[in-house]
Amino acid sequence: MILDYVLRIVDPVLIDVSRLVYRRLAAQLPTGVDRVSLAYLRHFSGRARAVVSLGSFSSVLSNAESGLAFEALLDGRTQDRATAIRLIREALVRGLGGLRVADQVLLNTGHLGIEHNGYLVQLRRRGVRPVFMVHDLIPITHPEYCRPGEMERHVARIRNMITWGCGIITNSRDTLDTLTTFAGRNGLVLPPAVVASLAPGLAGWSAGPRPIVEPYFVMLGTIEPRKNHWMVLQIWRRLVESMGTSAPRLVLIGQRGWECENVVDLLERCQELNGVVIERTRCNDQELATYLQHAQALLFPSFVEGYGLPLAEALAHGVPVLASDLGVFREIAGEVPEYIDPLDGRRWMELIVDYANLVGSLRSAQMSRVANFQSTTWARHFEIVDSFLARLGAS
């Protein structure tokens, strides 16, 4: 039985790398979803082939081409567009070709392309068995925080995942519960599903020299409405008004997203925030680890999240967290962080003032809790995933 299990989990798999390729083409730095996809490449690259899709069209690359694709995409030192262009060209030339893919598992961890029925029809005709990772249902449950039209696209994705999928992996119990509710309301039956929590991605990086002399806080993530940057910037304006030059600094790490004009106006035109709020739109992993590990705390005031990798990253590095009181955050971190209603600006300000002092009473108490935090590892994540794929193979 053990040998049978081992044989099944080493069967070759297909990994859809389309999202990573197109983000490389646009010279965009990895988001949380991208980091998860890269972790899957590291784990499966020795026994996987790459799939590149464009709308309903998809192509399976050869072993040699896949190896080159994985190596290029995992190389974090470069964001060259030439690699992405070459992969797209190879995919268009090859098509599905004559490669045998029947009964092989296709892992799609990036949500890209799943809204197109033709993408799934084409692969299933070849006998491929799709397994999807669901990161969140935010465009469905909270469409007000997303681009226009994203709710309809995500409904199509989730419906297709449930209808066509041989299996579903979710990043949290909270996401699986939301997915189950969606399926029930729409008369759909979920395929086999498993929860595999995500691991921090900065474990191998140590902090460099302190980047800012003054005490500072970090917000990590794309600037978009649901991340609640606007409230935090209003708090910082009040801090500057009351504390002057002794106000703590705020470092915003993340690219500017959509419908964030009010935040951009404050960043570019508010004189009180000039020199106090520092925006880093591009930050490599070494710089990110450095900023995070020297911070007074990570601020995570989101209105909704599918998971919350920055929270796990911070706690894994011994950095306290001030976070919105979300169920998924409590699932990840229990009672370690300081939880606050995302609309309670007064309480956020009180805690920021306390945490700005290294010996603040509340900060000191959380530091004691942080010492006992144990994050999920990628080894544990893939132990769950490999076992799940083995069970699907047996069925």
Commentary on this structure:
This protein has 17 helices and 13 strands. The longest helix has 17 residues, at 378-394. Helix content is 46%, strand content 14%. The chain has 395 residues and is α/β, with parallel strands linked by helices. It starts with a helix and ends with a helix. It has a seven-stranded mixed beta sheet with strand order 3-2-1-4-5-6-7, sandwiched between helices.
- On the 0 to 100 scale, the average pLDDT is 89
Strand content: 5-15%
Helices and strands, in order, run as: HEHHEEHHEHEHHEHEEHEHEHEHEHEHHH
Q: Radius of gyration from the CA trace?
A: 22 Å
CATH class of the largest domain: Alpha Beta
Q: What overall geometry do the principal axes of the alpha carbons give?
A: globular
Name given to the CATH architecture of the largest domain: 3-Layer(aba) Sandwich
Number of domains: 2
Number of helical elements = 17
- What fold name stands as the CATH topology of the largest domain? Rossmann fold
Question: Largest beta sheet, briefly?
Answer: 7 strands, mixed
**Which residues sit in consecutive blocks of at least 5 with pLDDT less than 50?**
1-10
In angstroms, what separates the terminal alpha carbons?
Answer: 15 Å
The residue fraction in helices comes out at 40-55%
Structural class: alpha/beta
Keywords:
Rossmann fold, 2 domains, seven-stranded mixed β-sheet, six-stranded parallel β-sheet, 14% strand, disordered N terminus
Strand and helix layout:
Blueprint: H1 2-9, E1 13-16, H2 18-25, H3 32-44, E2 48-54, E3 57-60, H4 63-74, H5 81-94, E4 105-108, H6 117-125, E5 129-134, H7 138-141, H8 150-164, E6 167-170, H9 173-185, E7 193-195, E8 216-220, H10 229-243, E9 249-253, H11 261-269, E10 277-280, H12 285-293, E11 298-300, H13 309-316, E12 321-324, H14 327-333, E13 338-340, H15 345-355, H16 361-370, H17 378-394
Parallel strand pairs: 1-2, 1-4, 4-5, 5-6, 6-7, 8-9, 8-11, 9-10, 11-12, 12-13
Antiparallel strand pairs: 2-3
Helix pairs in contact: 1-17, 2-5, 10-15
